[in-house]
Amino acid sequence: MSTKQDAMLLRGSHGLSDAVSVTARRHSRWRVPHEHFISIEGPWQLPSTSTVQSANYSRHRGNPLTNSFSSRRMLAWTAPVALALTALAPALPAQAAPKPMPTVTTGPVDKDLNGDGVPDLVAVGGPGTGLGSGVWSGLGVKSRKTGVGTGQVQTPASNVGLRGNGVTGNDSPADFDGAQVITGRFTGVDHQDFLYYYPTGTSAGNGGVIRGAGDGTMANPYGNQFSIFSDNLIDANGNSPLQLVNAFQADGVDTGIPDLLGIAGDATNGYRLGYHPNYFAPGLYYGVTGLTNPTPTGGADWQNWSLASTETASGVALFLRNAGSGDLYLWTGVTMVDNGDGTGTLNHTQYQVAANWNTGVTISTLQAADINADGTPDLWAVLPNGTYRAYLISGLSNSGAATVTATRARPLA
Questions:
Q1: Across the chain, how many H-helices and E-strands are there?
Q2: Residue 364 carries which DSSP code?
Q3: Is 231 helix (H, G, I), strand (E, B) or coil?
Q4: Are 260 and 285 in contact (CB under 8 A)?
Q5: 168-201 pLDDT, tens digit each
Q6: How far is C-alpha 57 from the geometric centre of its chain's CA atoms?
Q7: What does the pLDDT average to over 11-24?
Q8: Contact 244, 197 (CB under 8 A)
C-alpha cells in the first residue's frame, strides 16, 4: 500500500487553526471503535450538548482521504428521577382534548436567515426567472395567532446578491446568473450561509460559500467567500453534479459543516446520487460516494429528478420531483451508509406526496422547509414569471398520497 501526505488548508474562525496538516493513507481501511456508554443513577443532569474532540479518532468515509481527527457530538441526557404521587379526588366530567397547537421553535431552524424561528425563502434571479439578476431573500411571515410560518414571505423580497460572488471582481449580481443557491451552516456557525453552484456555463462544476450576515442578507463576499472547486466534486467518470443540495450530517459524522448530496452521470455510464463529505472547512469537499439507490419509482433515470432538502427534529428530509411525470415523493429519516468501497446507500422512509404535481411545469427554485412548524416538511416553488407559492404538506401515509395545501401565488419581487 502506498501512502501520501496531504496538507489541507482549513480556513475560517471559531477556534480552527489557520492551517492543519492532515496525514492520509490511501486505500487503507480503518475500523471505528464501538461507542461506550456509562449509566449513572441519581439526580445528575449533564449540559444540553457537549462536543468531544479526539486527536486519535479516525473514520473512513468511503473516500481515499482519511482524516486523523474527527468531532463527534454527544447528545445530552438527563437521568430520570421519578416521584409517584397518589391523590384521591372526585371524578371530573370528561372533557374534549384540546386541539394541539404548532410548536414555536426558538432554537436554530433550517432556512431561517434572520433568527426569528421562521424559515425564509431564497431564490436565484437572472434570465428566465422573472427576477432581476442576483439572489433574492424573502423573509417568512409569522402568524399572529400561532407564531409559526404561514407560507407567505415579506415582499418585495430583497436582492442580497448585489455585490456578486466575490470571485469575478465584477461586483455584479449577474455573477449568480445560471447558479443554484442553497442555504445552511456552511461556515460552521449557528446561522445560515449561502452556497452557490454552477451546473452549466463557463464556471460549470465550480461554486462557493458566502457567509450569511444573520439578518437575512449576505456578508460582503470579499473576505467572506470560500471557493468550491470542480475537481473535488466530480464522480469516477469525471462528471460534475447536475444539482447539489444540503445533506447536513446524514453520514453521522459531525464535522461542524454540512455535507452535500447531488445527482451526476452521463448517458454512457448512467446517472446516480452522490454523497460529498465535508472535511472540516468551509468549501472543502473531497471526493464522492456513489449511492446505489434507485429512484422513488424504482428506475435509474436520476437525470429526470430534482431534489430539495431540509432538516427537522426527526432528521434529514429529501423531496424528489420528476417534472415530466408529476411524481413527488418525500424521503424522511435520511441517513447515509458507507459501504467502505466508494459506494453507499441512503436509508430512508418513503412517502408519496402527490401524483401529477405541477406536471411539465418549469420551477426556477424548489425549496424545502418545515414552514408551519408541524414537523412535516413543506415546499416553496418559484416560477419563471417571478411568482412564488407555498405547498403545505400533511397526512403522510404509507397507503396513499399526502394532503397538499397550496397558498395563493404572489409576486416575489
A1: 0, 26
A2: S
A3: helix
A4: yes
A5: 999 999 999 999 999 999 999 989 999 999 999 9
A6: 26
A7: 35
A8: yes
